[in-house]
Amino acid sequence: METEEPKTVHRGIKKGLYVIPTAFTAANVAMGFLAVLYSIRGFQVVKTHPEIAAGYFDYAAIAIGLAILFDTLDGRVARMTKTATEIGVQFDSLADVLTFGIAPIALIYSWAIGSSFNELSSEHGLGVFLLFMYLMCGTFRLARFNLQATRPRVLQEGTPKVDKKNFVGLPIPPAAGLLASFVHFSPLPLSYHGEGLARFYTYLVMILIAILGVLMVSTLRYSSMKTVGTGRRNLYLVLVIAAIGMLMWLYSQYVLLILSAAYVSHGVIWYLLTSIRPRRPIASQEQGVE
């Protein structure tokens, strides 16, 4: 009887650990929910009170940024506590569809497309179509990630092998983070800048949405950052994180935009560098045949 008590306590603690990653995922969902509400509220006053609308749009962008933080923490906590489960993977993906799929397109529509174009215009229809394709590409990206996580073997010929250090295709959180960082950088609705500039800026945003959708369904490699902090030089990592955190606090509009743009573009730059670099394995095989 004496030996049963510690086991019971240990099991209770172990069960409690499973709640921690779920709590972070729930916070992720809450941020996505708030981002959608703030976007709707901002769109209601975008024509009459653009300054007030800018405040709502900024709140929505900040909520998406916080959701990225919670989404990063839930995976790391699950791996650290060894409480990763299949239902946790599915729950996290469903949360990402809301927070990084629906919430950003609601924000971008309210901030740019809906405020700049007439609902009956062809430009408005094209913008809505691109937002829908962004959502579809992001959902497909999440489905592919779940499939690769549960079935790590090659599914068909030509399918890239799963690499824990890298993601295949642009993850949807950084894509949403880039869109949110643009809104946070300039939260005033684009219609505030006048009809000519508003249309021009909105066209650029639509091009960006299309590029992000293509990158999400591509096979470009993006660093997963899962190995960050696992080495021996944790002190330097703490200093870097502290410096970035301070810069975010002081210059969040610039730092968040630079960081999100750097991550989104590094996959393309990585691909270009690897394609230009000469292939050494092929040369070594030819020498072996000779």
Offer a concise description of the structure.
This protein is mainly alpha-helical and 290 residues long.
Can you give a write-up of this model?
- The structure is a single chain.
- With 290 residues, the protein is an all-alpha fold.
- It has one domain.
- 76% of the residues lie in helices and 2% in strands.
- It has nine helices and two strands.
- A two-stranded antiparallel ribbon has the order 1-2.
- It is globular.
Task: Give the SSE order as H and E letters.
Answer: HHHHHEHHEHH
> Strand order, biggest sheet?
1-2
- Structural category is mainly alpha
- How many helices? The count is 9
Layout of SSEs?
Blueprint: H1 4-17, H2 19-44, H3 50-80, H4 86-116, H5 122-150, E1 166-168, H6 172-185, H7 195-217, E2 221-223, H8 234-276, H9 280-289
Antiparallel strand pairs: 1-2
Helix pairs in contact: 2-3, 2-4, 3-4, 3-6, 4-5, 4-6, 4-7, 5-7, 6-8
Features:
2 strands, mainly alpha, 9 helices, 76% helix, 290 residues
